[in-house]
Structures are given as structure tokens and as C-alpha cells.
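Moderator note: this is an archived Q&A kept for reference. The question asked for a predicted structure of one protein chain; the sequence and the answer are reproduced below.
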Amino acid sequence: MNRVGQGTGVAMLMLALAGCGKQQAGAPDAAPAAPDAATAPAPADEAPTVAGLHDVIENDPRYVVGISYPPAVNKYPGLAQELGAYADQARAELLKAVDELGNDQPRAPYELSLAFDLLVETPQVVAVAAEGSSYTGGAHGQPLVARFVWLPRQERMLTAQALVDSPAGWKAISDYTGDKLLEQAMVRAQGEDMTPEEQQAQVRNLSKMIDEGTAPDAANFAQFQPVMDAAGHVAALRFVFPPYQVGPYSDGTRTVDVPAAVLLPHVAADYRELFAQP
């Protein structure tokens, strides 16, 4: 069974290494839904670009590394530092696995493929997606899925814990996302070649994973990206659930958009101005 590569943004970067790295199989439907047109990067306040992150290509007989960054993130040193730290940790874990081989040669080169893509850029909010995989043997790579939401005017990251600071808020978000994910699971089951009994069994199994992966805890909703309206306000938050969190690896990354109307009653006062008002 071939391993699966993830992180489409780094594909061009990895082409230079194709002669040395092993050929990858086609990727599963693991990428989150493309951001709405309104979330496309919009011009932000002019800021000088500073020396910072640069694309990385490493080729060794035992491993390959490809990391790509959008140049615009270097306008935000604090954000660039967070992205760099995430990439450094992923690279360090790959090299640790290489070191543990000792004198052995892997059957196929270990590989880190990671792309950071700019999703939103406004004076109030900048959002970056990280997508990729780390392969250290086995049937497929370990998915790498992360989101970074930076507030330029406050020069800090927006975290789930800060955004919603009440158990009631996470209960509301948990209920909403759990229901939507279950609806998605039912639609997928109906589209598969199974008997009604097999479909029901599949949905029951997924329901358990969904309940666990969307339990009302901020840690379960750490990965999110804003969906912006035409006026530059957050119309919804797209919560991102990596493979294994709410379903098997084969289900890939799942997402649920929670509209501002559902979120606003539970958003901390410091961040309500970011959202579209009812």
C-alpha cells in the first residue's frame, strides 16, 4: 500500500527532488474545502518586509524536506516566528526518526512536505493554513494540518481558548459542529455501495468518533480559519478537524463553518468587533 503525500502548495518545490525522492501515490480527499471567495487575501496596510522565512529544500540519501512559505508573512514577524517554529518542530521530528535508523537505510526516503498558504490578509486579521505530511515509514505519511490566525493590530495569535472563554460557548459550538459532521457522514454513507444496514453501522461508528472529537473543549477546536464577508468582517469560522479526529484516515480532513450568529453570543468581548454583526 503506497503512502499518501499531502500539502499541495509545496508540490512545485518538491519537483526539483523528484529524481531522488520516491514517487508518491495520489492523495486522498484530505484537504479542507477551499476558502470562500470572500476569504481570498485582500490588501492590508502597507508594512515593510523584513528578513524572515524562506523556502527550504533538503535532499539526503535517507530523507527529503520541502517547506514553502508565502512571502507576505514576513511582514508580520510574530506570525512568521510561529510558522517557523511549527516547521522547525516538524523537521526536528523527521530528523529524529532518521537518527533512530542508525546505520540502516530506509526502504524509501523519509520525507517532510509542508506548505504554508495565506488565506486571509486584512488590517484586522491574517490567516495562514499549514498542510502537509511527514513520512517515516509505514503505509502513508502522518498528516500535518494547522491554522494560524494573527491579529496585526494586537500583534498576537488568536487562539480558541481566548476566543471563547466559557463552557457554554464550547457546548454550543460542539453541538453545532457535531450535528453538521454527522450530516456529512450520512451523506457519504448514502453515496457508497453498501446495504442500508451497513450504512447505518458505518454512521454509528463515525458518530462515536465525532462525539469524542467535538467534545466541548477548546483543544478540540484549536484549528480554525476565518471566512470573511465583503466588508472585511468574520462571517463564520471554519473549524478544521485533521484526519483521525472525527473519522478514519480515509475520510481525510473534515471542516464545518460555524456562522457568526451562532458564535457571537459566546465570543469574548475583546474579539466581537472582528465579527459581522446580526
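Archived answer notes: DSSP finds six helices and nine strands in the chain.
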